[in-house]
UniProtKB/TrEMBL annotation:
Protein name: DHA2 family efflux MFS transporter permease subunit
Family named by the database record: Belongs to the major facilitator superfamily. EmrB family.
CDD domains for this protein: MFS_MMR_MDR_like
Domain Major facilitator superfamily (MFS) profile: 15-455
Length: 464
């Protein structure tokens, strides 16, 4: 096992820039697509269910492969895996931009998800190598998460401008120059990480994970079209449950499992993962639903829709900076609780809006949700870095981000099944969806209170 020498300060900063660029285009791609949905639907002549697949094909591949990507980062080094993922994502973006049909677009979105999965765990591991001192690492993670959160929030506005000016294909092609710059910066300046040469790839576990999440996603998406009591949906849910149970059984007996179940003895990882799942459930679902609400119920253009999302994004960077400082001074529990509490209030307020509600009545709750999510995200990432062994950071990061992406997949599916353009009453479905997000966020707060009963210090050893 080789331990790389600490990177110089300038190299650390450029490594932070490289990882931030990677996370930016990955997160931008999550939200930028939403404002293009109406144009994609008209251009490719597809229905609302197909639109959900355009959004979720990316997130599904992302969620399915994150654990393997974390293991790859541990075994081969985070820099090599990060560069490979960045290259796959960039090439897949070209495929999306040049696609002339739904099948090619969805397939290219799957490849984007593969590239994104390779990038995210390795980018967090790269930050751990570039910033070995805990206080500096907390600030670096705050910046990394802040730029990504800003990209998530800016996606609708950026997408609105691009779609209105250059067509929906441009939201994918814009990734290409960013990808090239990020790959160069990583190769030139990012340090390598500790390599766990004994790590092996668990093919059986990976296959069962794909079946579990794919079956769950199919059930959630098709449930809105076929009905939750349909034989197809129930069969898919049963398949997801069976594959999930078999996955746990295989992992418990495997010598080098894809998901070491011993990791779940770590209360901080468990709480962070549950918090991340609920954050993405509400945020991703809300982005999808509100885009349809603005463009269908309120008849806004893509650009107007992007502008309508500004209250949700205006304070993202500030909230992330505040979260980093709170985490560095008081530990990760406080920003988790504050963020989830604020998001819960936002979801509750959105349960009372209608198509003719004022911009203020819609914007303030969205502002609360965006601020709450931005406060919570850096703290859950810093918590994992601070309480997992250095040789397992990649796989632990994979667990955390898999939980978040599962939340996003289910959120888009559930919100999409409730908020459908053909229903004639988008607001009623939206009210049910945000109340579900409200309840899940409250459950997350209970988990934080029970699982992190004693506040932990922010400055701790990675193996602590």
């Amino acid at each position: 096992m080789r331990t790389p020498a600490p990177a110089p300060r300038q190299s650390s900063r450029l490594a932070l820039l490289a990882t931030s660029l990677g996370f930016v285009i990955i997160c931008l791609d999550v939200t930028v697509v939403n404002v293009a949905l109406a144009r994609i639907r008209a251009s490719l002549a597809i229905d609302a269910t197909a639109l959900e697949w355009v959004v979720n094909a990316y997130t599904l591949a992302f969620a399915c492969l994150l654990l393997t990507a974390g293991a790859l980062a541990d075994r081969f080094g985070a820099r090599r895996v990060f560069v490979g993922g960045f290259a796959v994502f960039t090439c897949a973006s070209i495929g999306c931009g040049l696609s002339g049909g739904a099948a090619v677009l969805v397939a290219s979105r799957v490849l984007q998800g593969v590239g994104a999965a390779l990038c995210v765990p390795s980018s967090l591991a790269l930050l751990g190598a570039a910033f070995p001192e805990a206080h500096a690492r907390a600030k670096a993670v705050s910046i990394w998460a802040g730029t990504a959160a800003l990209a998530l929030g800016a996606g609708p506005l950026v997408g609105g401008v691009l779609v209105d000016r250059f067509g929906w294909q441009s939201i994918f092609l814009v990734n290409v120059p960013i990808g090239i710059a990020g790959i160069w910066l990583t190769l030139a300046h990012a340090p390598d990480t500790v390599r766990h040469a004994a790590r092996r790839i668990d093919l059986a576990g990976q296959a069962l994970a794909v079946v579990t999440l794919a079956a769950l996603t199919y059930a959630v998406i098709e449930g809105g079209r076929l009905g939750w009591a349909s034989a197809t949906v129930l069969t898919s849910l049963a398949a997801a449950l069976a594959a999930g149970a078999l996955f746990i059984a295989v992992e418990a007996r495997h010598a080098q499992p894809l998901l070491p179940l011993a990791l779940f003895r770590n209360a901080v990882l468990n709480v962070s993962s549950i918090t991340g799942l609920t954050l993405n459930f509400g945020y991703y679902g809300l982005m999808f639903a509100m885009s349809l609400f603005f463009q269908t119920a309120r008849h806004d253009t893509p650009l107007e829709t992007g502008i309508a999302f500004l209250p949700m994004t205006a304070v993202v960077t500030v909230a992330n900076v505040i979260s980093g400082r709170l985490t560095a001074r008081f530990g990760h529990r406080l920003p988790m609780v504050a963020g989830q509490s604020l998001a819960a209030l936002g979801y509750l307020a959105l349960a009372f809006i209608h198509a003719d509600s004022s911009a203020l009545a819609i914007g303030l709750p969205m502002l609360a949700v965006g601020t709450g999510v931005a406060l919570a995200v850096p703290s859950i990432n810093t918590a994992v870095l601070a309480h997992v062994e250095a040789t397992s950071i990649g796989i632990a990061s994979g667990v955390l981000n898999t939980a978040r992406q599962i939340g996003g997949v289910v959120g888009v599916g559930v919100f999409g099944s409730l908020v459908r353009p053909e229903s004639g009453d988008l607001a009623a479905g939206l009210h049910v969806a945000v109340m579900l997000a409200f309840v899940m966020t409250l459950a997350s707060l209970v988990t934080i209170g029970v699982g992190l009963a004693k506040p932990r210090a922010a400055v701790t050893n990675c193996a602590g």
